[in-house]
Each structure stands twice: as C-alpha cells, then as structure tokens.
Design a protein that fits this description.
Two copies of one chain form a homodimer. With about 230 residues, the first copy, chain A, is an all-alpha fold. The first copy, chain A, folds into two domains: about 70 residues, Homeodomain-like (Arc Repressor Mutant, subunit A, Orthogonal Bundle); about 140 residues, Tetracycline Repressor, domain 2 (Orthogonal Bundle). Chain A contains eleven helices and no strands. The N and C termini of chain A lie far apart (about 60 Å). At the A-B interface, helix 1, helix 6, helix 7, helix 9 and helix 10 of A face helix 1, helix 6, helix 7, helix 9 and helix 10 of B. The structure holds a DNA duplex (30 and 30 nucleotides).
DNA sequence: GCAGGCGTCAACCAAATGGTTAAACCCTTT
DNA sequence: AAAGGGTTTAACCATTTGGTTGACGCCTGC
C-alpha cells in the first residue's frame, strides 16, 4: 500500500485517513498539527526505520514536501514526535510519583492513573522502549527538557518502610522498578500475552481494567512489613 | 559505516568482526552458522527494518549474495533468526513454569534461571517485544512450532493458593503476568532505568543480580495468604 | 584429468526512499 | 490591483537497498 514509484507524481489525497479539508483555509498552521498526528501514528506503528515519509504525508493528506517544509528532515520530525510522546508519559508518572501523598494513597493512585493513560495510548510503551533501545543517545536531552530526575520522594518513602529490618530490606530502587514493570509490562507484551493466555481484545481490555485494583493490592501486600 | 554505493565492488573482509578464515575449507556449511550469528546480532541491534543485508554480510565476513544463497530473502533470514531467538526464550520459561515442582521452589527457580538467561542475552526481550508489536502475524506459527501453550500447571498452582478467599482472589493470570513482568521489565527498559536511577553498566549488572534474590522474596510475600 | 556441482564472488539492476526545487497558489498589505 | 510572503504542489534527483546474474574456483567421483 502507498507505494509510489520514483519519478511518478504523488500527492493525491485518495489514501488520506483524515477528512479532506479545503486546503489552507484554516487557522494558523493546522497542517503542522496534522503532520505531527500522522507522524506519531506512523512512527509508533513502524518505528523510525520502518516509517516512510510518504506514508506520513499520505496519512496527513498532504504533499511529501510539506514534511520537509515544517520539519527539516525525518530525524527532526521523529524527534518532535518522540520527545512529545516520552515527555507526556514521564510527566504524568512523575507528577504522581513525586507528589506529597502518603505511600498508601500513592500506590493505588499510581496504578490507576498510569494504567489509565496507557489504556489510551497502548502502543506508546513498546514504541518508546524500542527506540530507546536502538538509540538512547538523546535521552539526556529529553530528560533535561522535561525535568526528569531520580524520584527521590518515592524512593525515600520506600526506604522508610523498612526502617525496622524485619524482612530483608531491598534497595528501594527495586520497588520502584517493580511498580513500573507491573504496570507497563502487559502493554509491552500485549500480543504475546493475548496469544499465550488465549484472550481476544475485549478479554485483554477487561484484564487490564482488573489490574487497576489487583496491582495495588498485590504491591501493598508485597511490601507489608508487619 | 558500512556504506556501499551502488555499482561499487563490495565484499572486502576488512570490516568483519569475525577472524577471516580460509574460505570454504571448513566443515559442512560453517558459513550458514556465521550468517545466522551475524544476522542475529544485526537484527537484534537494529530491528527488521533497520537491519541492512550488507551489514549482515560484512559482519559474517562474506559476500552479500551468500545471504540470498542460504536464505532466499531478508524476511526468510529474519524468520530463522527470530524463531530461534523467541523459541529459546519461551522454551526455558516453559520448562520451569510447567514443571512439577511445588510453587515455593518454582518461584525462586524461575527468577534465578530466567534472569540468568536474560543476563546472557540482554537485548533479546526488547528485540522480541519490538518485532512482535510491529507484526505479530506469525506468532501462531512459532508458538505451534515450539509447542507453546497456556501454562496450566502454573496457573493451577496460583489458583490453589486462594482456595480460602481471605484476600480478594485475583485471576491467576495476573500473578503469571506479574512474574514475567517483574523479571523482564528491567531488561526492556534498561536504558531508561540506567538514566533515571543514575547507574552505570556495572551498577546495573549488580542491580540485576540483586533481583534474583529480591524478586522471589517480593513475589512470595505478595501472594502470602496467611 | 576432466565433468559436474556446490560455494563464492564482483558486478549489476530496479525499486524504494529521503530529500530538493521551481513554479504556482492564496491571503494580506498597501 | 499590484507587491510580497508564507504555504503548497508536481516533478525531479541522488543514494540506498534488497535482490539477481554470470563467471570462477575448488573439491569429488569417475
């Protein structure tokens, strides 16, 4: 689909997913937003190297040259999409995780909110994980840009639990990683899990919904010290 | 790197990672194995669409045409690599998970063994997750080929714990997913975690090692019913 | 020692792909 | 209504890339 031999005219709107609109009779640069939306979809679905500029242009319903007009090249466009995507995810997590709420409130809140976002952007985690693994060079930049830092508050709260060392006291980092992993993993491995557990999309959606209540119980039981 | 303009001779060995060997004076098709090894490295590092046949040939120290001689095309070569990779992972997990060992033995065994394999193939999870998310069509085939099925034994064991419903009884599937996620997630998100938690490679290796003992404790505490 | 075939290679090819260009388009300003 | 500038387009280009081809080498069996 969307093939386009070289030296052959392009730019028809026939394959656009968005409703054709009278071009450019819009408010300030709606085009730019349509490009971003289209790019996000294509990049998330195919990854950086799998994404095709033509596919993005088609999905946005514009000429390929426009992509380079607004974003100089593929990498720049990708960076815009990715930075926004990763930023959105990180921002929400950190807002919850670094809040002043007591741990007993924070844990259910985290699982509820976080799984909630992920349900609305189910492909985000795999996308981010994939690209970060293939090229993590720009991570520092993005982290700086979004003010991401070691979540000291949460780690501190975890550390306090084990003041009286009844259980072997784990590094609080483990608990944080566990928390993230428990929430994120089903989204990362969704296709595999569906297949192994014999679930269709509806089953899986219900399964994820259950986890919003299961995970807080599971996690809080795991760190109970009494 | 490894650029190669069209119509320009290729096939020098200068960029091979393997020691140059006298060609073809070897036992039955060592070449095939070298191709597989090289392909695995390149595919795992770059994904399907990011991998270049030329890069694989270079890494294997052979001519690009050989790739097509042994494996008709890129997809076939990828399938061979991927099937082997996913199979290896699934096989070990299922051997442990579906054994007759009692749950209290099985849980530490699982975390130990599984994290152990993953330490030796740290990029495998991200690779599998990525490709499975971008194209899960051939999952059924691979699953059939490796005899992967719903792990009934483990799920049964999980279900038995909650016979007396003191805690709210979660679907045993949740516990299985939790187990997998806890073990796998750090490998999937390694670059992110290193950055967020301020760990260098040595720190992170130690962190993973700790998890072999932390996770059984964490998990068993979480499912304790008394 | 020569016929046949597997393995290997340099060279080649067509399509795909990211990127560029020059002209048009349309709205605003004067 | 003409000038001017941001926006959009069709056509084009250079390079990359997966894949093919024809020949050569070398070992084996006769």
């Amino acid at each position: 689909m969307n093939s386009n031999r070289s030296n052959v005219p392009q730019g028809g709107r026939e394959s656009s997913d968005l409703p054709a609109q009278s071009p450019q009779a819009n408010r300030e640069s709606e085009t730019e937003q349509r490009i971003l939306d289209a790019a996000r979809q294509v990049f998330i679905l195919n990854g950086f190297s799998g994404a095709r500029m033509q596919a993005i242009a088609d999905k946005a319903g514009i000429n390929k040259a426009m992509l380079h007009y607004y974003y100089r090249n593929k990498q720049k466009l990708f960076d815009a999409v990715f930075t926004e995507a990763l930023g959105k995810i990180l921002h929400v997590v950190f807002a919850i995780v670094e809040s002043d709420a007591p741990l007993d409130d924070k844990i259910p809140l985290f699982f509820n909110e976080y799984i909630g976002i992920l349900q609305r952007h189910p492909h985000m985690p795999a996308f981010v994980v994939n690209e970060v693994n293939q090229n993590g060079n720009w991570l520092p930049e993005i982290f700086k840009k979004h003010g991401v830092h070691k979540p000291k508050k949460l780690l501190q709260q975890f550390a306090e639990i084990y003041q009286q060392p009844e259980l072997d006291c784990p590094r609080p980092e483990h608990l944080m990683v566990n928390m993230l992993g428990l929430a994120l993993f089903p989204f990362l491995a969704a296709p595999l899990l569906k297949r192994v557990l014999n679930m269709d999309d509806a089953d899986f959606a219900a399964f994820l919904e259950e986890r919003k209540t299961h995970l807080p119980a599971f996690f809080q039981q795991a760190i109970k010290t009494t």
